[in-house]
Design a protein that fits this description.
The complex is a heterodimer.
Chain A (H helix, E strand, L loop, with lengths): L3 E4 L2 E5 L4 E7 L6 E7 L5 E8 L4 E4 L2 E6 L4 E6 L8 E9 L2 E2 L5 E6 L1
Parallel strand pairs in A: 2-11
Antiparallel strand pairs in A: 1-3, 3-8, 4-5, 4-9, 6-7, 7-8, 9-10, 9-11
Chain B lengths: L3 E4 L2 E4 L5 E7 L6 E7 L6 E7 L5 E2 L8 E7 L2 E6 L8 E8 L10 E3 L3 E5 L1
Parallel strand pairs in B: 2-11
Antiparallel strand pairs in B: 1-3, 3-8, 4-5, 4-9, 5-6, 7-8, 9-10, 9-11
Classes of the chains: A mainly beta, B mainly beta.
Amino acid sequence: KQEVTQIPAALSVPEGENLVLNCSFTDSAIYNLQWFRQDPGKGLTSLLLIQSSQREQTSGRLNASLDKSSGRSTLYIAASQPGDSATYLCAPTTGNQFYFGTGTSLTVIP
Amino acid sequence: GAVVSQHPSWVICKSGTSVKIECRSLDFQATTMFWYRQFPKQSLMLMATSNEGSKATYEQGVEKDKFLINHASLTLSTLTVTSAHPEDSSFYICSARDRPLEWGNSPLHFGNGTRLTVT
């Protein structure tokens, strides 16, 4: 079974800072990896999807990288804003299964 | 874009009753849907994989007689929590792929979740 770990568990930064969220997984035989954000009490919003053959994917201020062989992915957020405050989850896909880490709770201080 | 609608968004029920949660793909056909639950301050845990026209595949430790899943059509999957107890109180979320036959190009789309409180 896929084990997903996200570090740090919580992060608090002042507005404008660049930051990196880390995700590691134990089974490198993945099809793709998705990053999500979850606002309190809400569902998930997909941020980025990286195919297993890709090294990185960018969307606006977000950049996600994938090192499949080492079982790692990072989410880079540039010029953070208070609206970025949320929990960020990574989910590697193994076959038809998604397994989530416990997430990183991000607070961006105005 | 692909939209997954989940209903209800919240429900309160008495212990011993059953609750049905619906998950619909509004603008695409979903041969496979996934059901997760999330306890406070914890991550999502996959409960089961729902396949249209066949039985759901449950994760280890999830009681299939307790959490009944029906995927009767390509756009609807339902989760019924039977004889609910307070410990079933949780946040339940469904999700679906919009392109099930293309694993490499299939993002997962989530409903907004259902907050179940059993009193």
